[in-house]
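## Example record

The block below lists the input lines for one assembly entry, exactly as stored, with component labels intact.
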Amino acid sequence: MSDMLTFYPAGAAPQVGASRDDTPRERRYFVWTVGCQMNISDSERLEAALQGVGYAPAEQPSDAGFIVLNSCSVRASAEERIIGKLSEIQRLKRELPDTTVVLWGCMVGPDNQSIFRERLPMVDHFVSPSAVDAVVALAPNPRYQLDEPALPVADWSHPPVSVHVPIQYGCNMSCAFCVIPLRRGRERSRPLDEIVDEVRRIVARGAREITLLGQIVDSWGHDLPGRPDLATLLHAVHEVPGLVRLRFLTSHPAWMTDRLIEAVASLPRCMPEINLPVQAGHDDMLRLMRRGYTVARYLSLVERIRAAMPHVAMVTDIIVGHPGETAEHFAGTQRLLGAVRFDKVHIAAYSARPGTRAALLEADPAQAVPEGEKQARRVALERQQEQIATERNQHFLGTTVEVLVEGEHRGKWRGRTPGNKLVFFSHPADMTGQLVRVQIDATGPWSLRGSLAGPVERA
Ligand code: SF4
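Predicted structure tokens for the full assembly:
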């Protein structure tokens, strides 16, 4: 094999598989990802780009000459997982000192690189979140060059049914508990044409569902010429031939507009699911968290969404035990959960992130919520939500739902309803990528089970 840099034609990236087994260690990569959908999407795009420049994936770090850890710092536990992995890699680097190690993602910010350089000697390079090209440029032995940005799918021999496409990077808010603006920087929207073109290329290669991603996805476009909005983008992406389903996340209550609600309600391929983090159910806490809305405003928004889409699935995020949260504030969150009756709630016990305003409050014993209390509140909320989800899902019993099948799971086919509920059913044929109708005969808080009723006929 020649080590000369050659031009590699886009769209014809070598496939992962047996033919790659003879790839030497110096041209194998190992990417390890912690964190949110944005990180997963970045890593998929990185893998595709690395394959495009002539690398092949390695099963384990010791088989790779190029190791990338895509990190998350939303909670202390996510950082601890990365630090644990780096200790393993430190041992490996002693035996194989020619390995190149990159720490990528939200742990890397302009504020902490010099500290990390001292604390993490096993890391050769630190790269800011989402900078895929910067990571690819560090791969030591490329065989090719890409002629256009890689699509966010690593292995086109098995194109995924559902692909996430970042449309915006960074965040302009300054929620007290959140480190993301420090690490991902100010908001940058990708241009409309670039996004539509990318979706067209992804769908042409077999994907059926696209989820548009942003930290505050509803604010997309405000920094672009002409200030297009997410409703405009949804209309444009919706027209991509072959696209079956369109979703977007994550919304912000202060940014969601009636125009956007209207667009979701009126576009048949745009799925009725809104991810709208509320974080707390008491105005004092929302003010302390610097969220920019009140409980009343949130509830009125939910009302407008449900008026426009009666079958919408509502999903939210909640933090319990944020510094300053009293029993009364927490009771407000429990009331809000009971009032809205979300389909799904991501609940996290607060964990201090250095450099944030809430971390300063947490350092004050009068403000900090004791760990035991945080966990007790988390468990109480999880129990409440489990009951709500159980009851909400019981409404599906005996009904027929439309399911886009994503793949196989423990001998059953696994897919999702328009509202993103997980559905399992059995069938002898390969159902991957099919849009089918499933009659629901069992429900639980986290998923539905049923039997195939037939294909979906669509105009
Ligand atoms: S909106 Fe708030 S919680 Fe979300 S990324 Fe921005 S600062 Fe963080």
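The chain has a mean pLDDT of 91. The first strand starts at residue 6 and ends at 8.
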